[in-house]
């Protein structure tokens, strides 16, 4: 009896699933950016809003739900493997960590009864996530800081690259990845922690901390203009 006789996924299905799992970091990054877009309710910045009327959220609820569904789907298959194969999960928290664990343990998954549905379920969750990130961009207004939902955006913990891309959609001029690096070097903001992604080390910041530092520390160009005035 060959190893293939013990597999509930074909070799072709295994290759497709591995390819999908390795696309996860890029997809998760796109979801993180999309979640903060104001494209859920109506048209941002519409005039004549009356009290009690719905206002656009400073994050995309559809993308947030898709991200949760994607994470839940991957976690469900990890638990399925751990329970049936009697192994412990030794990966990292978060969607990318779960995906990497499934990638490393793909044969264990394929040898687990019921795993024949894994490819279809994960494909569906990723397709839904991609649909959420591909929604047409709408005109974005600068965030209204007195909205309760704005606190959710400020509490997000993201890399400098994602924060810079997100802030462009929210109307914060000049808040680039280089600007965040400069603010860090000057001690204006500090990362919460550092995470390893492959061989790279990425600093994780709280969005609200970066935005506050950007607003209170003048850029070099602005400082030069003030001195010349």
Oligomerization: single chain
Number of helices: 11
Instruction: State the major sheet.
Output: 3 strands, antiparallel
Shape: elongated
The portion of residues forming beta strands comes to 5-15%
Q: End-to-end span in angstroms?
A: 84 Å
Instruction: Please bin the fraction of helical residues.
Output: 40-55%
Strand order of the largest sheet: 1-3-2
Q: Give helix and strand order, one letter per element, not per position.
A: HHHHHHHEHHEEHH
Defining traits:
229 residues; 11 helices; 54% helix
Question: How does this model look, in words?
Answer:
It is a single chain. This protein has 229 residues and is mainly alpha-helical. The chain has helices at 11-22, 24-35, 61-85, 95-104, 106-110, 118-133, 150-154, 160-170, 177-185, 207-216, 220-228; strands spanning 157-159, 193-197, 200-206. A hairpin with a 2-residue loop joins β2 and β3 (200-206). α2 packs parallel to α6 and α3 (61-85) runs antiparallel to α6. The radius of gyration is 22 Å and the shape is elongated.
């Amino acid at each position: 009896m060959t190893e293939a006789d013990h597999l509930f996924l074909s070799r072709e299905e295994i290759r497709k699933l591995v390819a999908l799992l390795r696309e996860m970091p890029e997809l998760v990054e796109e979801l993180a950016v999309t979640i903060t877009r104001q494209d859920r309710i109506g048209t941002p910045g519409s005039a004549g809003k009356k009290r009690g009327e719905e206002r656009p959220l400073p994050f995309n609820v559809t993308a947030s739900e898709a991200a949760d569904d994607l994470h839940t789907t991957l976690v469900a298959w990890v638990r399925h493997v751990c329970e049936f194969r009697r192994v412990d999960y030794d990966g990292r928290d978060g969607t990318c960590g779960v995906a990497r664990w499934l990638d490393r343990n793909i044969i264990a998954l394929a040898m687990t009864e019921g795993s024949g549905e894994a490819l279809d379920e994960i494909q569906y969750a990723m397709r839904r996530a991609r649909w959420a990130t591909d929604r047409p961009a709408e005109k974005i207004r600068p965030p209204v800081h007195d909205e309760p939902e704005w606190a959710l955006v400020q509490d997000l913990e993201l890399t400098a690259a994602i924060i810079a891309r997100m802030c462009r959609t929210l109307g914060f001029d000049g808040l680039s990845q280089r600007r965040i690096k400069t603010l860090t070097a000057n001690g204006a903001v500090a990362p919460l922690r550092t995470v390893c992604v492959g061989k790279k080390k990425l600093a994780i910041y709280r969005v609200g901390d970066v935005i506050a530092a950007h607003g209170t520390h003048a850029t070099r160009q602005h400082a030069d203009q003030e001195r010349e005035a």
